[in-house]
Design a protein that fits this description.
One of its GO terms (molecular function) is protein-lysine N-methyltransferase activity. This is SET domain-containing protein 4 isoform X4. Helices cover about 45% and strands about 15% of the residues. The strands form 3 sheets. A 4-stranded mixed sheet has the order 1-2-9-6, with no helix packed on it. A 3-stranded antiparallel sheet has the order 3-8-7, with no helix packed on it. Strands 4-5 form a two-stranded antiparallel ribbon. Bound molecules: S-adenosylmethionine (SAM).
């Protein structure tokens, strides 16, 4: 007889199911139930670290002196792909410490084949444009790119308002609609104003630059930088415009999802030469590890990251002038 088919085990399963209901929390219920009846525990069901793209990424990170036995990529109900802790994390403990050699910053771009082209271009391109250009060029390089294992785990598409059909944006409340249109204008202007710069890169490619640096390629790169970079202030360089140079792409670390209810300390540590994130609250074993992207309301989360947070303590309602007058009159 197969294990767990008899009357006794049916009764035991019913009892377990009832006790997990009373503890509350859909995810925790699933955890206790699946664990108790002897099927694989939830951590192995969610685990994505055996996927070929993560195996490649781990090898790539190891070559750059980063190994983390504690965090594993996993897919969670509600938040999607993120990182899970194999052990419990104490308050104050370093969650992740990523060496500078893994970071993609404007320093990386300047040291690359793009450096000479950026240095001679007038007016100087912005640090954001430099990062986007590098991402598009490396993505185009495919298997020739040393960044391929990182590029392969990046989302293929984004859900920021700038990526949505205008008819969908039209359904947004008025204040959000205005912000979404501003965002679209900003990216379109970046594309239009960068065309000549992209043309100057033609000697680097055998294909026409117009087909490589298309609007959709720039949009993908712009969303990648805007949704995934960490704050890291770099020194001002003459070859860039005066906009702040504060974005660093941090492979693997950028798999951490947001929760408005956790606190973390994040910064580049000049002594260890690592970008470190330290937990300000504890986290249980086999649970998703969250960081906080900032005290953002849902409008800002949607505009900057393409999602909203349920039970967001920073949630607020935007009231436009016209809207306010209408409500006051009724
Ligand atoms: C830094 S990345 C985090 C990793 C990302 N989930 C992934 O699969 O690569 C930021 C993006 O993750 C998603 N995200 C982050 N926190 C989330 C949450 N609490 N709920 C839903 N999606 C979230 C959003 O798409 C956001 O733009």
């Amino acid at each position: 007889m197969k294990k767990g088919r008899g009357r006794t085990s049916r009764i035991r399963r019913r009892k377990l199911s009832r006790s997990s209901e009373s503890r509350g929390g859909a995810f925790r219920d699933a955890h206790s139930f699946i664990h108790d009846v002897g099927t694989p525990d939830i951590s192995s069901l969610l685990n994505e670290s055996c996927k070929p793209e993560f195996i490649e990424l781990k090898k790539w990170l190891k070559d750059r002196k980063f190994e983390d036995p504690n965090l594993i990529p996993a897919r969670f109900p509600g938040t999607g792909r993120g990182l899970m802790s194999k052990t419990s994390l104490r308050e104050g403990q370093v969650i992740i410490s990523l060496p500078a050699s893994c970071l993609l910053t404007t320093d990386t771009v300047i040291r690359s084949y793009l450096g000479a082209y950026i240095a001679k271009w007038q007016p100087p391109p912005s640090p954001l444009l430099a990062l986007c250009t590098f991402l598009v060029a490396e993505k185009h390089a495919g298997t020739r790119s040393p960044w391929k294992p990182y590029l392969d785990i990046l989302p293929k598409a984004y859900a920021l308002p700038v990526c949505l059909e205008p008819k969908v944006v039209n359904l947004f409340p008025r204040p959000l609609k205005a912000k979404a249109r501003e965002q679209r204008t900003r990216v379109q202007e970046l594309f239009t104003s960068s065309r000549d710069f992209f043309s100057s890169l033609q000697p680097l490619f055998s294909e026409a630059v117009e087909s490589i640096f298309s609007y959709s390629a720039l949009l993908w790169a712009w969303c990648t930088v805007n949704t995934r970079s960490v704050y890291m202030k770099l020194r001002r360089r003459q070859c860039f415009s005066a906009e702040p140079d504060t974005c660093a792409l941090a492979p693997y670390l950028d798999l951490l999802n947001h929760s408005p209810n956790v606190q973390v300390k994040a910064a580049f540590n000049e002594e260890t030469r690592c970008y470190e994130i330290r937990a300000a609250s504890s986290c249980r074993r086999h649970e998703e590890v969250f960081i906080c992207y900032g005290p953002h309301d849902n409008q800002r989360l949607l505009l900057e990251y393409g999602f909203v947070s349920t039970r967001n303590p920073h949630a607020c309602v935007y009231v436009s002038e016209g809207n306010f007058d209408e409500k006051m009159e009724s």
